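Reopening this ticket.

The earlier resolution said the output was attached, but the attachment link was broken on my side. Pasting everything inline this time so it's all in one place.
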Amino acid sequence: MIGVLALQGNFDAHIKVIKKLNLDYRLVNKSKDLDCLDGLVFPGGESTTISKLFKKNDNLIDGIKDFSNYKPILGTCAGIILMSKQANDERVYNFGFLDVIMQRNAYGRQVHSFEGNISVNYLDSSKDTKALFIRAPKIKEIGKDVEVFATYKNEVIGVKQGMHVGVTCHPELLNETLIHSICFNKK
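Inline output:
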């Protein structure tokens, strides 16, 4: 069963992708919702708003930190910002699951959003898939233990560190399953 953080953001699209992979899901709002999950999704949304909601629930923060030691977490757009070690914005809570430094809203405002083909290289194969970039962040720095697995026009947009995966875009909004498959080992 995969949990989808449901504090704010578009978690419905992730649920559709999880169902398409024939996996069960549970919405996560409290620490106890993490029990018996096999993975967790940090959906896109607004990273400062999600951070405020996290800070109102320290038990959820502690629960997710503990969960991250044993189970994979996937972050898309705002999700990768929250998973990063730094976002250069003191309003954002950074869990540090991914040794990356992020720049929020790096592609511009909402009107600058776009759809693009991303290249995904994983397990000795390469595939292209579609994704949306909506007020998307950019990965500015990558730590030595971080694996790059996805690019857009030669720019890093997807990383993996240990079992955790983050992308700067929204493949779920186009009902694409490849990124979720990589994180949750669903072939």
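Reporter confirms the inline version is readable. The first strand starts at residue 2 and ends at 5. The domain at 2-183 is CATH 3.40.50.880 (Rossmann fold).
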